[in-house]
Amino acid sequence: xxxxYVNEEWCLGCHLCEYNCAFANSGLxxxxxxxxxxxxxxxxxVESSGRITYAVSCRHCEDPICVKSCxxxxxxxxxxxxxxxxxxxxxxxxxxxVCPYGALAPDENGVMQKCELCVQNACGEPACVKxxxxxxxxxxEREA
Length: 144
Known about the structure:
The structure is a single chain. It contains 5 helices and 8 strands. Strands 1-8 form a two-stranded antiparallel ribbon. Strands 2-3 form a two-stranded antiparallel ribbon. A two-stranded antiparallel sheet has the order 4-5. The protein is an alpha+beta fold. Strand 2 and strand 3 form a beta hairpin. The radius of gyration is 15 Å and the shape is globular. The chain folds into 2 domains: 1-57 and 115-144, Alpha-Beta Plaits (2-Layer Sandwich); 61-100, Alpha-Beta Plaits, CATH 3.30.70.
């Protein structure tokens, strides 16, 4: 299965992946209207550890503990992609607590969100990959 991978040696820490993610998932067609003067709620997050920067996003695990832990049944696995049904999420944060990668975070309404590989917004490939100027984020299939 194709997944998002981060080559941290190439990450500049520019946060453009976050902006492109937030815009792609905003439902708007104008980036300025979607993002200017508003808090960002991207589904990918840039972290740093000393001199290394890297993007954190959902790894779409083979045996996802977030799916098992969701008390509302809002998280499911379909076609190897972990998805969140925002209408079912009760905002208990259990999935966020159990995720070993820190890939889940609440949106502006307290509903959990995570990378869903841009399957809902028809980008073709994840917006974070398209928007990475240094190609530090890639969408590819790798052997385990």
